[in-house]
Amino acid sequence: LVAKRRDDYRAPDFTITDVALDFVLAPDSTRVTSELKVSRQGSHSKSLYLDGEQLTLLELSVDGSAAQDYQQTESGLTINNVPDTFTLRIVTEVNPADNKALEGLYLSNGVYCTQCEAEGFRRITYYLDRPDVLAKFTVKITGDKASLPTMLANGNPLESGANDDGTHWILWQDPFPKPAYLFALVAGDFDQLTDTFTTQSGKSVALELYVDKGKRSRGEFALEALKRAMRWDEETFGLEYDLDIYMIVAVDFFNMGAMENKGLNVFNSKFVLADQDSATDEDFFNVESVIAHEYFHNWTGNRVTCRDWFQLSLKEGLTVFRDQQFSSDMTSPLSNRIKQVRVMREHQFAEDASAMSHPIRPDEVIEMNNFYTVTVYDKGAEVIRMMHTLLGVDGFRAGMDEYFRRHDGQAVTCDDFVSAMQSATDIDLGHFARWYSQSGTPQLALARAYNEQTDTVTVTITQRNAPTADQTEKAALFIPLQIEFIDATGQHVTPDQAMYADNLLIVDKDTTTLTFTGKGSAITPVALGNFSAPVKLTSDLTPAEWLHTFRFANDAFSRWDAIQQLYNWCIEQYYQQQPHAVDENIWQGLYQAVEASLQETEILGECLVVPSFETLCQSRSNIDVHALNTARKAFSEALAEQLADLLLTIYQANQTDAYDYQPEQVRARRCKNVVLGLLAQLPECKDRIIAQFEASDNMTDTLGALKAAQHHDLVLFSNLMNSFEQRWHDDPLVLDKWFSLHATCERGDILAQLTLLRQHPQFSQQNPNRVRAVVGSFAFYNTTGFHADDGSGYRFLTDYLLELDKQNPQVASRLVTPLTQWQHYSSTRQDLMKRQLARLLEDSGLSKDLYEKVSKALA
Ligand code: HT7
Ligand code: ZN
């Protein structure tokens, strides 16, 4: 298997300007007729090569004459001696019912659906399946009228009619040239929700949302969220929707979250359907955020697309940043920022430390589906955020305007984006742009020295960029570091040197120094405010100074982070078998910090969350998994004991009225359920958990009670889980929460439990949501089960992946991630994990997807 390299990009030899597709739908033999207007680019006499996989070619003609001079392989079709411009007609047959990979055209639960990003269109017909070939599409669909009353494609419906044989047809036209990855077709029988949106220029847009029969009321929130997103993009970026109709279809079988096909978004139903009974506050949040993300792609992705797939972060990093800003405006900046940082610290730092480390703009790819990563998406968004910080709100907006002015309708690169941003202000982004090419997490270390004679504190910040699996040579990056300084009395002080802006220091060398003269010796730096850069920071702060920071820092994120750093320090003492180092002063300090924050529900709720096991791993090496997990739990239990009376007060103070998804209630429920999770570690909590479960009028509190029970006692857990299952056994989307809770339960017989879950009538290996809920939850979050000392957890995952890979390589490849991230663990554990990776590699039929990740992890 050969990797493609970014440096090898060549413009296409031919382009396609117009596409007419004709689908005649049938479960195992859908006929696709494609008429393409093709033209040679530049002067050369090369043959035309078209991508195509798993297709049965039935007819091929050039300008109306059957083609004779062509060759077919497993991955494409070469047609020789073609004219400079011509019409190519291709008839192929595909088998949607047999398509379990959910890429290309597939049929599941009676719904025909396509997924073409990144390279799925080549499984529908032969084509120049690359994002820099943009064509206008018309699509005719013919299908059974009774079972497929709704038949959708991109753009606007032009005509429709019925045939005598019980089929009907419809013709769609998309006026915007697009790459094939944005093509979509859906056919099925749905409930429909409709609405309209009037754009800022007065155009009326029809909004249509299609959901499973009987689920209409669960779609209402998504439709409202869509209108909020449309308005926000107009107000924030001046970006208006461009077609007359915007359609969203929710399907049950989907490999990822959603897909931004032009005018016809296809969504995993998990990110559309929500009501108070079936969805948690977090589900509502995710629905709004994914709806917005896909909508925002209409400009950042569709109107301006990627030249090649190495540029994926051009659209994904930027669109994640945009959806993050939207969510922050709709809910609250602090909890959003904390959520985003948790993803970075738990998942992206882990990826950067693993064999899959890659820059946000990768250099080398075997299987593109493997690069829809937290690095490309979330670190990509952090890089955009840093530009936002450096340019300011107005400068960033000017850069965005310039980007669209220059590139609307084009397929461009990350360099083009930076260049547009560069032109908007005087700020030189030359050094900054290295973030696109360098992988790895920069490590900043902050240290202080005091010179009594001159009464000067020197703060030194060193930057280290360690080699990663993919790159040995590293250079210093351009890091905007938000920082404030507090003296012993809690007053803010400023350094002798001028900084880039108020509270913003540029760290662009190996060492950066600031001094404070005449301000005393006790200066506490509060660095990485608002997580201003995706870096790891260590410092010489003491526990007392973390508490001082919590008390006096201006930046709310830094206050939260101070408590997290303090917890990390405490857990380290437990891990080192020195729990007494967490002394009375620290407990008292924590108690006072919480007591002083009783009215600050939002930060209080987040501060009471102990860092996850996965986050703790990112600042450690040679980890003894069970010792660290035990240390974390012991600290968490001690925290609950020490704060017990306060926790009870908080629990009682944060009871909410009848359910409503609105910010104040969401904060209260979050705080209450975090507290219940802590209290659940204490023996006397059982009745409280039961009471919450029984009184709950919403899924957030129900799930809060179940999670608490999981930490409290297995009998209680299993009773409540049974009652939950009885209520929801007909609703697999809701039952995923139940699957996931079972799979994350730390119990000795977890593998037997997983076997039972796989035999559950609602479990289906063909549905990615079910697989993720059971196997994904286990592998990513069941620390004791997955990391069992005898290697049985690793073996279980491997056995499962060997099966799943034959059906759905994309999902299998995502699930292998925890097994590839062995770098932080002790060497015996690394050996156990690598032994299973080696078993995977021995499979001669392994997919490209798994091969790429597993071979890297073993290199
Ligand atoms: N642009 C999409 C990425 C994607 C995808 C979506 C669903 C199924 C398979 C997929 N492969 C790639 C989703 C997004 O970022 O908006
Ligand atoms: Zn996206």
UniProtKB/TrEMBL annotation:
* EC number of this enzyme: 3.4.11.2
| Name of the top EC class for this enzyme | hydrolase
What Pfam family is a match for this entry? DUF3458_C
Q: Where is the signal peptide?
A: none
- Say which domain of life the source belongs to: Bacteria
> The Peptidase M1 membrane alanine aminopeptidase domain covers which part of the protein?
221-433
Output one GO MF annotation.
alanyl aminopeptidase activity
Q: Which residues form the Aminopeptidase N-like N-terminal domain?
A: 81-182
The UniProt record lists the keyword Cell membrane = no
* InterPro entries referenced in this protein's UniProt entry, alphabetically: Aminopeptidase_N-like_N, Aminopeptidase_N-like_N_sf, PepN_Ig-like_sf, Peptidase_M1, Peptidase_M1_dom, Peptidase_M1_pepN, Peptidase_M1_pepN_C, Peptidase_M1_pepN_C_sf
Residue ranges occupied by any Peptidase M1 alanyl aminopeptidase C-terminal domain in the UniProt entry: 545-859
Cofactor (UniProt) = Zn(2+)
Alphabetically sorted, this entry's keywords are: Aminopeptidase, Hydrolase, Metal-binding, Metalloprotease, Protease, Zinc
Q: Catalyzes what?
A: Release of an N-terminal amino acid, Xaa-|-Yaa- from a peptide, amide or arylamide. Xaa is preferably Ala, but may be most amino acids including Pro (slow action). When a terminal hydrophobic residue is followed by a prolyl residue, the two may be released as an intact Xaa-Pro dipeptide
Q: Where is the Peptidase M1 alanyl aminopeptidase Ig-like fold domain?
A: 440-539
Family per record: Belongs to the peptidase M1 family.
This protein is called Aminopeptidase N
Identify the species of origin: Alteromonas gilva
User: Which taxonomic lineage is given here?
Assistant: Bacteria, Pseudomonadati, Pseudomonadota, Gammaproteobacteria, Alteromonadales
